[in-house]
Design goal:
The chain has 85 residues and is an alpha+beta fold. Helix content is 35%, strand content 32%. The protein has 2 helices and 3 strands, in the order αβαββ.
Amino acid sequence: MQMIRYRFVVVAICLFICWSVLKPARSADREVVGEKWEYLVSSNSGVPTSAELNRHGDGGWELVGVTNEGNGNYAAVFKRSKPIN
């Protein structure tokens, strides 16, 4: 009977050690480094032209939205990755 108890304790300890080593890290234990963004809003009359979109794209800007401001005016919203300092 005592041998069964001894084996149970040994197995329980082994399981606990395996669980503590292999468990996934909690979010508080991990350093979370998110990407930072900068934004550009370009307002003009009419829909943005492909030349304007290409000019901003060449500068690393990605178009994320266009909104109609009324009276034929549109605002194009761009974003790009912020450089790491």
